[in-house]
Each structure stands twice: as C-alpha cells, then as structure tokens.
Amino acid sequence: MAEEMAGLGPADLRAARVHVGRVARVTPLVPSEALGERRGYRVALKCENLQLGGAFKIRGASHFLGRLEESERRRGVVTYSSGNHAIALSLAARRAGVPAVVVMPEKAPAVKVAAVRALGAELHFTGSTSLERQARAEELARDRGLVVVPPFDHPWIIAGQASCGVEIQEQWPEVGAVLVPVGGGGLLAGIALACGYHRAGIRVIGVEPEGAAAMAASLQAGAPVTLPAPHSIADGLLPSRPGDLTTSVAKRFVETIITVSDDAIRAAAAFLLRREHLLVEWSGAVGVAALLYAHPGLPGVPTVAVLSGGNADPAAILAAADAAPRGDR
Fold first, then answer.
1. What range defines the domain where residue 99 resides?
2. What is the pLDDT of residue 5?
3. Do 143 and 256 fall within a single domain?
4. What is the DSSP letter of 195?
5. Is 148 exposed, middle or buried (0-12, 13-18, 19+ CB in 10 A)?
6. pLDDT tens, 187-244?
C-alpha cells in the first residue's frame, strides 16, 4: 500500500492543505499557446515562480511548522538548502515567530542569500554538497536543541508539496501528464501522491539535469543512489542523493524520469522570459526544456510543466535569452 510505503495517505494530504492554505498562494495555471503549437497538444504552466518566497518550497515549510508542538517552535528550527527551501523556511518561520537557522553552500546564488538575510534567518555557509550542509545542520541541531526541517525527505514536507498537485487537477481536470523538476524529489513525490490518490491515470514525469540525474539512477538501481559530484547550472536540483521516502513514492507513482542538458535549460529559461514574460530560474525551467526539445519520453497528452521557482538573477536570464537560438526565443 502507498500509505505504508510513504507514511502518507489521502487524509494526510487533506490535512496538509489546511496548513498550506494559511500561508501559500494558489498559483496560476497559465496556458502556453507557443508550446502547444510546437507540440501539437495543449500545454499549461503551473507558476510556482509566483509563489510566496519565489518557489513551491513554502508549501512544505509552512506545513512542517504547522505540525510542530509549541515547545519545539520555541526552540527554533534549522535547515540545509541551496536556496529555495532556505528562503521558504525563513519566511514561514518569521511569520510564525519561530527562530530559524539556515545552512547554505559556500557558493550559493547571491539572489537567494540576499533573500534569506532579508528574512532575518541566521546564516551559516558550509561546503558545496547537500551532504556537507546536512551534517552541519544536524551538528547545530544537537548543540542548540533545534528542530531539523529537511528540504525534501520527510512526510510533512511531501504532504505540503502535494498541495501543488491537487491544485493542478482542480484548475485543469483534463490534464493528462505533469512534468516536475526533480532535485531531492519532494515536489515529485507530493505531486505523484496527489495524482495517484485523486485521479488515476495522470502520468507524472520527473525532469532532471543530465549532470545531476540522481533520481533516474536511483529508480534504475531500485534504491537511492549517491552521486559523487552532481553538476548543472540548475543549482536547486543538485542534491547528491534523493530521499528514501521520495524514491519509494517515485517507484510506485512516477512513470519515468527524463533528463535535459544545461543548454536546453538555458534556452527554456530564455523562452519563458521572451515568449511567456515569466522570470523562471534554471531549476524551474527543466520541464519546458523537455518540451522545447521534444524529449522522447513526452507522452503527447494535455500536459502541465511545473515552473518550480523564480528566484533568479534577471541579468543572467537576459544574457541567456540574448544568446539563445532565434527559434527558442
């Protein structure tokens, strides 16, 4: 049973929507005529780049904080993140009056570091890998009695992210497939559970960068795989290893994982800026990259591409737009 496998059932997802709805937005689902014309079937964009905090992560973070006991909230929370989860937890914690500590990589994007600082979280910088950040966060938790808020591999986080999948189905009942960016797999697992529980037959497809395809390797191996050196322009999709829970959900509910190149990701972000007037970070553009280049894993049915975040440097996206081939603008 899925409930036994992930520790989550339909009732858990319904309860999560209550916590999420107190903080997060219901983001728009925008039809893309340009992509629909290219592909020959309807395509829509789930604009989590317009979410509070600039990414879907506020869903899981707000649900997690909503589940804590008051004594735990007073102690404070700590997380490890390359950026978007750090921003989301900092925002949710500030709104809830909970002290927040964040561990980010030494070369975290400046726009994301600035956002965390502006929200008042205590910042620490450690290494370059997710495993290094996790170790430092767990050390701080032990030393100071903080509650660790994982970025993806926790039932409360997954249940919070599932609210995005429920919204997609409510906004477009005819949807046949959902393309989901994959880092640690929290968003993928949440949307997959939401689709699996609410309407069987929706094809959930994960999209990863070629240089950081940890979930694809994990599903092929049948268990989570650790990549020695994940690399991609998509900084939000670089965990060294997907989660145990997220992998187990993906094995049951995800149709396939497809990969895209960094060049395709740049072109997709440029396309979204030029044609759809949407500022989307590299990580959030991977589903559109698959659509632009007609990846063979695409199912050819009414499709939603989740734009998972918009915390990008506009100058970098504009530079990519200027350099993109004319057909991708």
1. 57-148
2. 46
3. no
4. H
5. middle
6. 999 999 999 998 879 999 999 999 999 999 999 999 999 999 999 999 999 988 999 9
Specify burial of residue 188 (Cβ count, 10 A radius: 0-12, 13-18, 19+). Answer: buried
Alpha-carbon span 249 to 316, nearest angstrom = 35
Whole-prediction pTM value?
0.93
Q: Are residues 171 and 200 in the same domain?
A: yes
Distance in angstroms (rounded) separating the CA atoms of residues 113 and 77: 18
CB 130 within 8 A of CB 240: yes
Q: Contact, 139 vs 160, CB < 8 A?
A: no
Residue 45 pLDDT > 80: yes
Domain count, the chain: 2
Q: Are residues 259 and 214 in the same domain?
A: yes
Q: Where are any strands of DSSP class E within 119-227? A: 122-125, 147-148, 177-181, 203-209
- Residue 308 annotated as catalytic: yes
Catalytic, out of 32, 57, 112, 163: 57
Mean residue pLDDT of the chain comes to 92
Residues 51, 67: one domain?
no
Cβ atoms of 237 and 152 closer than 8 Å: no
**Residue 124 and residue 14 share a domain:** no
Domain end marker among 92, 113, 148? 148
Does the annotation count 240 as an active-site position? no
Q: Write down the pLDDT at residue 6.
A: 52
Instruction: Indicate the residue among 148, 169, 197 that finishes a domain.
Output: 148
Task: Check whether residue 178 and residue 295 sit in a common domain.
Answer: yes
- Separation of alpha carbons 150 and 239, rounded Å: 12
Q: Assign residue 124 the CATH number of its domain.
A: 3.40.50.1100
- Across the range 12-34, mean pLDDT stands at 94
Which whole-number Å values give the CA distances from 38 to 41, 43, 176, 202, in the listed order?
A: 8, 10, 18, 22
Task: Point out the catalytic residue in the list 81, 82, 248, 308.
Answer: 308
| pLDDT of 281 over the 70 cut | yes
Question: Among candidates 155, 259, 258, which has minimal Cα distance to 204?
Answer: 258
Per-residue model confidence (pLDDT) at position 7: 66
